[in-house]
Design brief:
By secondary structure, this protein is an all-alpha fold. It has 16 helices and two strands. The chain is 74% helix and 2% strand. A hairpin with a 2-residue loop joins strand 1 and strand 2. Helix 2 runs parallel beside helix 13, helix 6 runs parallel beside helix 8 and helix 8 packs across helix 14. The termini are far apart.
């Protein structure tokens, strides 16, 4: 039976990612604590459940056999139309100035603070009210998530001469400097990989000119990440060479820690659970915590004292856990933790199937719409797929808000037509 070419490529990339991470974890180059066989089994079952569902269900949902390049050409026409839009240019300017304002405010606050205090400013001291916090975390951060995808698409498809590209670049840079968040650059690197992966004619990319360009892009991202770590850990009384050596060692170790440290945290959770949770299972709250946060956040902003699942869970996951003799890690427990916390072993089988359906529907939506908005949605769900072995991004209210926003935008015409039909019927 016919299977969409991109289903095969996504399946292969995701499967290889899991296999490589398990191999790195088993070799354990940093000498961290070993992971139990049962935890590895849960990871393998989660991956297998996703891949089987992804390949089987896609046969019944994705009906088109249109060449992906045709869809890409139509998407680029839609992108060019968006880039010519005065409304989008105005929005890009507004977001740039708002992020600039917060960066200036952030730098004023941290002026007399130690390096250990600086990272928490974004979460504690930067905002004057819960409404402002809500605005920044959902609207500003949500915009940056989407802008990162547009930036990556423009970069890969040579639209970087447009002034919007420069504005988005500076907005992303400024956003990353508010709290020294490196995650936005890692997201961009993954989006670039996704764009390359989805191109049906890979031969166009496999030549010296394109390989050089892609290498330069990834080197630039690496330098950005390196610079942030250097600024954070360098010491004034140590030579530049020693600081650089320390930064390289730190960055190399962090790559391994973030890659397989989540396996150790998952193993800790499977063995010990979370003391702060009253019940053994949370019956959907862990997997759909982002939706709950969106619903409860405005209510909490009005003064109501309601503890969302993320409030309770945050106190548990932020606790540093020893994953080696001299290594502590927190927050990243893989998607398996959320699934297992909800329904145990059964959740590890069921939720990956639902996850696969989300991605299949997003890919199918792109084939139907062939526009930049459906492509943004596809990029976003694929990013969260490749991140899922490190953490479940949809536990975040911001990620869930972006997902729901993009689903609404890509279905806006259908929603509008249905509303008009109901009005006419009345």
């Amino acid at each position: 039976m016919w299977i969409d070419k991109n289903i095969k490529k996504i399946s292969f990339a995701y499967g290889i990612q899991i296999i490589l991470l398990i191999i790195i974890s088993l070799f354990n180059p940093l000498g961290m604590y070993k992971v139990s066989g049962y935890t590895y089994l849960l990871i393998i079952i989660c991956t297998t459940s996703f891949l089987l569902a992804f390949n089987i269900i896609s046969k019944y949902i994705i009906k088109t056999k249109e060449d992906f390049n045709n869809a890409q050409n139509k998407m680029l026409m839609s992108l060019d139309k968006l880039l010519k839009s005065k409304i989008f240019l105005f929005l890009t300017f507004i977001m740039f100035f708002i992020v600039t304002y917060y960066l200036i405010k952030y730098n004023i606050i941290i002026k007399d603070m130690s390096k250990l205090q600086i990272r928490m400013v974004r979460f504690i001291d930067l905002f004057g009210s819960s409404i402002e916090t809500l605005f920044f975390n959902y609207i500003i951060a949500g915009y940056v998530y989407i802008a990162s995808i547009i930036f990556s698409v423009m970069l890969i498809n040579k639209r970087y001469k447009n002034p919007i590209f420069i504005l988005i670049s500076f907005t992303i840079l400024e956003f990353s400097l508010i709290g020294y968040s490196r995650m936005v650059y890692l997201n961009i690197a993954i989006y670039i990989f996704i764009n390359i992966l989805l191109k049906s004619n890979l031969k166009e990319l496999i030549n010296l000119k394109n390989i050089t360009k892609i290498s330069v892009i990834f080197c630039a991202i690496f330098v950005m990440l390196f610079g942030m770590i250097y600024a954070r850990i360098c010491k004034n009384n140590v030579s530049v060479v020693d600081n650089i050596k320390k930064t390289i060692k730190n960055q190399s170790e962090q790559i391994i820690e973030y890659s397989v440290g989540s396996f150790r945290l998952l193993d800790y959770f499977i063995k010990n659970g979370f003391e702060g949770l009253k019940y053994k299972y949370t019956y959907g709250q862990a997997t759909f915590a982002g939706i709950e946060e969106i619903i409860l956040y405005p209510i909490k902003g009005m003064g109501a004292e309601i503890n969302s699942f993320n409030n309770i869970m945050g106190k548990q996951t932020q606790i540093p856990i020893k994953i080696g003799e001299d290594t502590e890690f927190n927050a990243f427990y893989t998607c398996v933790m959320n699934f297992y916390l909800d329904y145990g072993f059964l959740g590890v089988i069921i939720f990956p199937i639902l996850h696969s359906i989300l991605i299949i529907l997003s890919l199918n939506q792109y084939y139907r719409k062939k526009d930049i908005f459906s492509f943004i949605l596809l990029n976003f769900v694929l990013l969260n797929l490749f991140f899922s072995i490190i953490r479940w991004n949809y536990q975040s209210g911001t990620s869930t808000f972006v997902l729901l926003t993009m689903i609404f935008i890509t279905n806006f015409e259908n929603i509008k037509n249905k509303i008009q039909e109901k009005i006419l019927q009345k």
